[in-house]
Specification:
binds nicotinamide-adenine-dinucleotide, Rossmann fold, about 45% helix, 8 helices, single chain, 9 strands
C-alpha cells in the first residue's frame, strides 16, 4: 500500500529515541523528510544519521517543546531545510510518578507542560505552513493511561487533555485541509524500558492485563502514525486510535 508520504515533511517531537525515533524512521522509509527534535541533541543526531545512512532525509534540531521560541526556531529549521511542514507528531512526553499527596507542583507542571503546552506551541508554529499548502496532518501521542493509572494523576490528566486538544483542533482545522488525530498506546517496549532493573516485573504485570499474548513494540505505534499521516486517512479526523493489545482499563 502506497502511503503517499513521498516528498512530505514530518516533524516528530521527542524523536531521539523510543517510539518517536521508530516513528521517524518509518516515515522516512515511506519517503518523508523528517525533523528529529529532542532535548537530547547527541541522541537526535544519531537517530538522524541512521536515517540518512539508510537512504532517508533527516535533520536533527535541539528543542524543548515547552519553550515557544525554541519550537518556532525548530519548525523554521524544518521549513528551511525541506521546504514545507506537512506532518506534525506530538510525541515528546515523560512520567513523574507519585501518589497525589507526594506529588509536588513541579512534577505536575513538568508532565502537563511537556505534553499540553508543548503541543500548543508546536501546533501554533506548524499550522501556518500546513495552511499554505491546504494540507496537513497532526498526530498527538496520548496513552491508555488517559483512563487513569494510580500514581499517575499528572500523566493521566495530560494524556486525557491531549484528546481534548485533538478534538477541538480537528473541528477548527478540517476545512483547511488539516486532520488532527490521537494515538493512545498501551505498553510499548522501548530500549529504555528494557534497561530498567525491574523490567521483568513490569513486563509480567503488563502481560497479566494485555488481551493479546505479546507486548507492543515501537513499530506498532510507528505504523499507526504512518497510516494516520497518509492519504488513506483523509476522512479520519478527531479520533483516538487505541494501540493497546486489547487493554482499555
Ligand atoms: N512506552 C510506552 O509504553 C508508552 C505508552 C503510552 C504512551 N507513551 C507515550 O509515547 C511517547 C514516547 O514514549 P517513549 O516510551 O518512546 O518515551 P522515551 O522516554 O523513550 O522518549 C521520549 C523522548 O521525549 C524527549 N523529551 C522529554 N521531554 C522533552 C521536552 N521538554 N522537549 C523535547 N523532547 C522531550 C526525551 O528526551 C525522549 O527522547 C510519550 O509521549 C509517552 O508518554 C509511551
Amino acid at each position: 500500500m502506497d502511503l503517499g508520504l513521498n516528498g512530505r515533511v514530518a516533524i516528530v517531537t521527542g524523536s531521539a529515541r523510543g517510539i518517536g525515533a521508530e516513528t521517524a524512521r518509518m516515515l522516512a522509509k515511506e519517503g518523508a523528510a523528517v525533523v528529529i527534535t529532542d532535548l537530547d541533541l547527541d541522541a537526535a543526531r544519531e537517530t538522524a544519521s541512521g536515517i540518512e545512512q539508510a537512504g532517508g532525509k533527516a535533520i536533527a534540531v535541539q528543542c524543548d517543546v515547552r519553550k515557544e521560541d525554541q519550537v518556532r526556531t525548530m519548525v523554521g529549521a524544518g521549513k528551511e531545510a525541506f521546504g514545507s511542514i506537512d506532518v506534525l507528531v506530538n510525541n515528546a512526553g515523560l512520567v513523574k510518578d507519585r501518589t497525589i499527596l507526594k506529588m509536588d507542583e513541579a512534577d505536575w507542571d513538568l508532565v502537563l507542560d511537556v505534553t499540553l503546552k508543548g503541543a500548543f506551541h508546536t501546533c501554533r508554529a506548524a499550522l501556518p505552513f500546513m495552511h499554505e499548502k491546504g494540507w496537513g496532518r497532526i498526530i498527538n501521542i496520548s496513552s491508555r493511561a488517559l483512563f487513569g493509572n494510580p500514581g499517575q494523576a499528572n500523566y493521566s490528566t495530560a494524556k486525557a487533555g491531549i484528546i481534548g486538544l485533538t478534538r477541538a483542533l480537528s473541528l477548527e482545522q478540517a476545512r483547511k485541509g488539516v486532520t488532527v488525530n490521537a494515538i493512545a498506546p498501551g505498553y510499548i517496549e522501548t530500549e529504555y524500558i528494557k534497561s530498567l532493573p525491574n523490567y521483568d516485573t513490569i513486563l509480567a504485570n503488563v502481560m497479566a492485563k494485555n488481551a493479546v499474548t505479546f507486548p507492543g513494540e515501537t513499530s506498532d505505534i510507528a505504523g499507526a502514525v504512518a497510516f494516520m499521516a497518509s492519504e488513506h486517512a483523509r476522512y479520519i479526523t478527531g479520533t483516538t486510535l487505541f494501540v493497546t493489545g486489547g487493554r482499555y482499563g
